[in-house]
Structure formats: C-alpha cells, structure tokens
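Weekly structure sync, notes
Attendees: PL, DS, HV (note-taker this week)

Item 1: Band 7 domain-containing protein
DS walked through the input record. Source organism listed as Melioribacter roseus. Sequence as pasted into the shared doc:
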Amino acid sequence: MEKVVEKNAVKLNGYLTAVVYLVLFLLTLYIFGSYAKHPEGEKLLAFIVLVVVIAIYPLGFIIIQPNESKVLILFGKYIGTVKNSGFWWVNPLTLKKKVSLRIHNFNSDVIKVNDLDGNPIEIAAVIVWRVVDSARAIFDVQNYEQFVAIQSETAIRALATEYSYDSGDDTKMSLRTSQNEISERLKTHIQQRLDIAGVEILEARISHLAYAPEIAQAMLRRQQAQAVVAARQKIVEGAVGMVDMALKTLSEQHIVQLDEDKKATMVNNLMVALVSEVQAQPVINTGTLYQ
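Item 1 (cont.): predicted structure, written out as tokens:
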C-alpha cells in the first residue's frame, strides 16, 4: 500500500487573488465592448479564454476555519493540505476534502467481556482524540471516525481480558484498583491501532466497570466476605500485639508475677475482650485465680 506523507499545499492570499479576479472580470468586459465595436478574431479568442478563466477562477477560493484543514486532490493525486486558517486561493481544478482537527470525544458502548479470571464483566471507556495527519485520515482508511470507534472498542475488549476485575493481591494490577495505570495502558493500545489513520489519542479512561448482572450478587457477597476476613485479620493482629505489650509491661515494671497458667488466663480474657464483636462484660473475681 502506498504511504501518503502529508505536505503543505501551494496557496495564495485570497484577498490579493480576489483583486486579480476583479481585474480579469473588468478586462473581460472591456474586450467584449471592444469586440462589439470592432469585431476581430484575436479579440474573440481573448474574450473566450477570459470567460473560461473567470468561470473557473472562483472555484479556487477557500476559507479555512480554526482547527480545520482541507486536503487537495488533483486528478486523483494528492498535492497537499491547507491547515492555516484564513482566506486562501488554491488550484481551482482540485477536489477539496474537509477534515476537522478539533478534539473529539468517543463514548464506547458498554461491552460485555470476560476478565483474566473468566468472570463476565461490563466495561466502557471515554476516548479523547483528534486528527493530526489529514492526509492519512483521508487516504489510509475508509472512514476515520468509524475506524476510531471500531479500533477503540477492540482495544478495550483486548485490555479487559488481560486483567482481573479485582485482585486480592495489592501488588497486582486490576481493573478496579489500578485505574490510572489501566488508563495509560488503554491509551497506548488504542494509539498503536490508530497511528495508521493519523489520529492522536489525548486521553483514554474507563467510564463504566461492573460485573455482569448474572454474577453481580454472587461477586458482591464474595467481596463482602473478603472484606470481613481482612478486617478480622487486622483485628486479631492488633489484639495479639496489645496482649504481648501488656504482658511485657507487667513483667518489666514488676507489677505482678504471673506463672504460665495465669498468663494463659490473661491472654484468653484480653483476646476475648479485644476480638469479640460485642462489648465485653467485666467479671469481678473476689477470690483467687485458682478458686
């Protein structure tokens, strides 16, 4: 496939060429009047040529809005692109194709796909893009806007299969917990697919992420169970640390001497008080620990 390289088209100031057009128009009227008075073959030929010129001449005038470009094609050959905003005159025989250089937003549809663990999830993303090479956008793909939409959804689907929806390991990336990293990866994936169309990806972010409805309730219960287990683990670790600190403090400050049985009893009582989900009720012992 022939690779198209964007280049600047030859253009002239539109206001100056408008003055030239006005001069040609007045010259045509003058020759027509002169020919009417003194018919001569040379004047008739000049009149016909000027009529053709002033008929075609206005086709070369173009107005370029900010963040807009026009691709010029002469008899099937690309001759350049006009990107500078303003009033210009170009070859009037060229075909002019308008390309918007403004920033676009693409909101993908919600896609249903399996994540790395095989769980069905729903995912969608917002892609911010713009055309940076008008020639490639026109000549290298059939419809660059449709191309952006299809390739973006393909990249989203491919990325979703590379990661788990949620990972219990904090060191592993997941779709839910690593939003910034996933967004950068998504941007890179889409950019690689759209380089051929002369499109630049400015931002790519996940806008919707959820488990598929058929497993949403089950996965919610699993997340709740994992949260409960993690919380209880933290509570137990804290309680063990507090019991250890209490025993060391009592021993170092010689507040009370505890044998192994007394230590076991104290550990049991402290663990129950610290770990229990309900408020512990104190029991006052009026005797000894061995009664």
